[in-house]
Amino acid sequence: MKKELTTVNRQNNAAKNVKGILGGVLLFGIIFLSLIGPLVYQVDPRSTNLLQRLQPPALFSKASEHFLGTDQLGRDILSRLIYGARISLFVSLCSILIAIFLGVTLGMLAGYYGGWFDNLLMRIGDVQLSIPFLVLAISVIAVLGSGLVNVVLILGVTGWIQFGRVVRAETMHIKEREFVSSAIALGASDIRILFVHILPNIIPTTIVLTTFQFALLIIVESSLSFLGLGVQPPAASWGSMINDGKTYIQTAWWLSTIPGCMITLLVLGANLFGDWLRDRLDPHLQQQA
Fold this sequence. Notes:
The chain has one domain (16-40, 74-288): MetI-like (MetI-like fold), CATH 1.10.3720. The chain is elongated, with a radius of gyration of 23 Å. The chain is built from eleven helices and no strands. The relative contact order is 0.15. 75% of the residues lie in helices and 0% in strands.
C-alpha cells in the first residue's frame, strides 16, 4: 500500500514538474523574446508600407516577405508583437511592484496592529472588491486619462487589495508564533519584528500571488488597450493590435489571432508557473504530499 502511494505521489510530482517547466518556458521565453527580439529582428514596428498591406504570414504565402504578415498599414506583425510584449510586460511589472509595495506594507500593519486601522483598511478593500477590477480601472482612466504612466499607476493602486488581504491573514497567524513572542519578550521594536521576523515568512506566499496577479494584469492591460484606454498609438500593444484587426477578421485573420494567441500563452505560462511555485513553496501542501 505504501509503495502504491509512493508511486502515485511520484507521478503527481512528475506531472506538476512538467507543468512547471512548460509554464516557465512560456513565461520566460516570451520575456526573453521581448528583450533580445529587437536586437535580432531589426524592423521598425512603426514603419508603414501600403503597397505591402495585409500580407499573410510567410508560412501561408510564398509571395509574402514578412514572417507573420503585415497589418492594414503594411506594418510588420512580428516586430509589433515583440515591441508589444515589451509594453505589456513593462506595464504589468511596474504595476505589480506598486501593488506589492502597497499591499504588503498595509497588510502587515493591519494584521500586526489590528484595531480601527485594520477595520478601515478591510472595509476599503471590501468596497474595492465589490467593483470588478476592469470596470474600476476603466472608470479611473476615464477620469484621469489614458497613457503609459497613468495605466501603470492605476493598475498598481487598484491591485493592492489582493496582496493586502493575503498578507494581513499571514501576519495575524505569524505574530502568534513562539519566535515572535520571544522577540517581543526580548524588547525588539515593532519595526524589527515586522521586517526581520514577519516579512521573510510571507515572502513565499507573496511570490506565488505575484505570478497569478501578473497574469491578471496582462489581461487587464490588453483589455484597456483593446478599448483604446491603454497605451496609445503609434506604440504597439497586443490589445490594440487585436482591436486594429477586428475589422479584418474575415479577410486577415492573423491580425487579431496572433496577438490573441500570444496573450493566451503568456497568461497560461504565468498560471502554470504559479501553480508549480505554490506547490513548492507552500509548506502545508508539502506536508500533504
